[in-house]
Structure formats: C-alpha cells, structure tokens
Predict the 3D structure of the following.
Amino acid sequence: MTTRYDVSGVPLQGGYVAKQCPVRAQNDAIRPAEPIGPDPFTERLFAGGNAFEAEVVAEILALHPHAISVHGADAGAAETATADAMSAGCSPILNARLPSDYVHRRVGRPDLLIAAPSSGYRAVDIKWHQSLTPSTNKASELPGLCADLSSLAYEAAAFDGDFSARKSQNDLLQLAHYQRMLEASGLATPGPRVGGVIGTERRVVWYDLDLPMWRTPSSSGRTKLRTTMERYDFEFDFRLDIVSVAQLHLVDADAGLLVVPVRCAECPTCPWDDYCRPILEAGAGDVSLLPRIGWAQWEIHRDHGVTNRAQLAALDWRTALAVASGADLAGLREAAAGLTPDQTLVAMDLAGTSVKQLAQLDALEIRTVGDVLALDAPTARYSGSGLTSLPREIDLARAAIGSDPVYRRRGVDQVVVPRADFEVDVDMESTEEGVYLWGCLLTNRTNSELLPSGYHPFVTWEPLTPAVESENSVAFWRWLMRIRATAHAQGLTFRAYCYNAGAENQYLRRLGLSADLVAEVDQFIASDEWVDLLHIWDSQLITGGASGLKVVASLIGFRWSVDDAGGGMSMVRHDDAATGDEAARRWLLDYNRSDVEATHAVRDWMDSAVVPCIDELRNSNLTPSM
C-alpha cells in the first residue's frame, strides 16, 4: 500500500500498532477522553507474560553459554549493544533492540535474534500462550515446524506430525514487523522469510511469513488470501496514515479524521471503550454491534448509506437473497426498463446472467420483468458488492431491535435439541499452561437410582506441568466413559454437552496424545453423543447479539452464583487458587458449576420455550431496544 500522507512526523511505532484496532491508534494520538485503566485480567496478562518471558530467557541462557542478553532501559545504548552483538555474529541475542527505522517509522525489541548459518538474523518472540494445537489433518492447518530450546534455529527445526502451528495473527504480524526492521537495516537472512514463536510448550514454532493464509477483502469486491507480510504492510501503513491525519486534526479541528468507531473483538479491553461505546450504541445502534459484521462488511453498508441497525433491518430480505445469489440486479433492472411486465427473464437478452443465476432467481419467484422491477431498490443496490451474508445480516438487525429476546431462524418450524436418559454437561477451565479443571453436571432423566444426579469437578491446584494436566484429565475422561458405559449396559441413552466445543475438543485431543487415547477420543468427538450446544443454538435461533453462553443463558433468565463471572476473571482467581487461597478455589468451583448448570438450563429452555420466527417480523413492528 502506498502511503497517502506525510508520515515523517509520526512517532516511531512498535509492531503492536499493526495488530490493534485502527480507531485505537487514532484515539491514542488525539486522546478524546480519559482512557480506562487496565482491568485485572489485562494486568495479569502483562505481569504473567513478563514472568514467563523471564523464565524462558533464563532457560535459553543456561542452554546456550555463548548467548548475549542486552541489558538496560536506555534505547540508544540497547540499540548499540544489539548492533555490536550482531556485527560479532553472536547468537542467540536476547532482549535485543533493532536499529530504529526512521524512514518507515518503526521501532522494535524482538525477544530473540537467531543467526542463520549463511548470514543475517531471524526474529523470535516469546508468548505466554500455547503455540501448538493437536493436528486434525485438515488441509487448512499449518504444519508444526518446531525446534527445541537447545537448538532454536530454523535449520534445526523438524515437523511434528502430532501438532499443527496455532494461527495467531497478532503473533505473526509482530514477527513481520521485526522482519521489515531487519530488512531495513540490511540484517535479515536472505531467502525464505520466517519468524518463530516460543509458547508455553517451550519449543520454537517457525512460521513462513510469505505463506498466503489470511483472507482479506480485495478491490474486486471478493476476498483474497494474503501473506503475513502483505497483511502487515497494509495494516501498519494504514495506521501511520491514521496517526498522521490525527496529528493534523490536533492542530486544525476542522481537519477530518480517517476512521470512526467500529465494534470489534478488541473493544472490551480497549482503554477507549467508554468513549467509543456510547457513540456506537446511540439511536438504533451501529451495524457493527451485530455479530460477524467487521470492518469489511461495515464499510460496504456505509457505502450504501446504511449505518445503523434500523436501516439494515428495513432492507428487503427477499431482494437480499437475490443479491447473495450473485445476480447482476442493476443490469437486470436496466435491461427490464421499458419492457412489458409479463415478459419472462428467459426470453430477455441477459448477457452475463448464467443459467445457474436464472435458476436461483426462479427459485425466488423472480421470473418476469415485473418481478425484477418490484425488487427493493435500496437492497438491490448491494448487487456486486460481494456481500453474500446480506440476508443473514438483515435478520440479525431485525432480531436486535425486535421486541423478543430470541427468534427462530427462517425455516425452523420447531426448536429441537437432542436429549438422553443420562446427560453430562461439561465445561473446562484453563490457563495459558493448560486445563486444571473439568467440571461435569450429571443429570439422570430416568426413574432409576443407577447414577444419581450431581456436580463432579476434576481439579488440580498443583503447578500445571504436562504430567499433572494429563493425570487430572485422564481421571475426568475415565469417569465420563464409565458413565457412558453404564448407560449403554442398561440399554439407556447417553449424551455429553458443552458450549462451543472448539476449546474442549483441543484439550481432549491433547489428552488423547498424552495418554495414548487418540482413537478413543476422536471416536467420541465425532459421535452424536458429544453435542456442541452452541451449534444447536446457532443453527436454529437468532438474537441479534452474541451467542456466547453468558449472553444466551442470561437472556433466558439464568444467573451465575458468583460475581464477575467470566473466563478472564477465572484466570485471575486461579493465580490466587494456585497459592492455596481457599476462597479463590471455592469461587472457581462455584463458577464452573454455574457454567455447566447454565448449559443444562439453556437446553431445558430450548426444549420447552415458544419462540417466534424471525420471518414474522415486519418493519412496522421493529423498534430499537437498547
């Protein structure tokens, strides 16, 4: 991307700016209000990350007697020390500070610099999270290319067939930042551009920064797979422009800013959330408040004059289906002008309209000139935008401002949730090191006393080594399989439920690898006895908001038995629990018990509630509800 503004006055930026919300970069420059201080979870992340980095650095120094560690807070001295170490060919260099890139406005401190056998250096960052995930052999996975801490180098790395590399965009954008700084100073290794991440597994996971892996919008209106380097270059340069214009705005208030608030996943922990949120929630609410409407979708809506949920809800759903089919509605309307209303589309000269599109239009009962001209013009203008999700987004907007908290999706006549004689609700609690608690709520829905209902936690408060995690997880697994086998032996049905199975499945597969239970675990995950309740909910119900367990359970009236219930707070509490704090341990068990009781409550509600269908909503009875 070519920078459109003079960025020579922009302060030097670290790699973090490329991965943060563009509005945050702007607000950091203009400071439109008093920023919020970090919450306890964010403070914990900073402290824990620093402590973990210090542990890994100490391990590497012990393993590599010739390693160099750059000390001191003075930026100039640290740059000089790093440059001297690189000139001498030292490796690894820890706590490095690369030469400041004044032309491209970059500054950076990679945790490690690793010399290549030929020449130049590669950057490695230490991250307090897992960098590997059990492989499922999907084509979309990144192979786990790993080196031990004793060897470190890319040339010493080998593929681990059991694991794939975790795709953390934030981690890789940071590595791309260091790569550009190495290139600017002439210190980068020639050839393939790679960078490494050391996660809590304490292995270097190497990533190809030139591998197309991030799907982003393109000028054609479609999406395109881009490399990490391409993604970084766009994001970093865009934010330099944003900060440059923000600086002009500080001098001249009439100078416009480049970006406006758009809701994103970063918002809840952003220091500017108290400033942006009221702007987004004003009136009918910004369209970005709806699930899965990000910058790309928000921009399309803005370009079509739709900026709030009420305007989006007012679009025509049937016309949106035609938009989603890819039909050239603008061309159809132009071709239909002046023709008789009863003339069929098949009889018209429709250059560029495929047989498939004609069939799709026919299925929507759009068959004649009159049908085409009757399409809603504002909605039809979305034709060619590439927004295939428009029908879904219209329904989301209608659900968000409708009078009921939950609606059935179109085509869902009755909400169905799979049940069983013996049901087990499962929820795990984890830290950056792994899982320390598997909570299970057993419900006996028969008249027998064979297996009494109750809450069963499998927990360890010991430091989470792989062996400790595996031992606790195996105890949970054996109990779950024993309940399952007992039900089967009596000719009764069994199901286990979780809410959003991604995390549970990952740790179940880790359990399978550590305890030689891979086939058994995979068979269970693939069976209909392991139910992801989020999938059951999302496939049938719509709220216009998030579908997380805390949100959904609260909508149906469930309340947690602890204050500040949430995954972030559970990690904060675990730090205290690990030191022997009994109150923190009780809080975690109560919190986990509420989680599994919540999934049970959601399932019971789905089984009995009378829920209106979203297609019953009309524009006349849509009123914004805040």
Notes: The chain has a mean pLDDT of 93. The CA atoms of residues 84 and 317 lie 65 Å apart. The first strand starts at residue 68 and ends at 69.
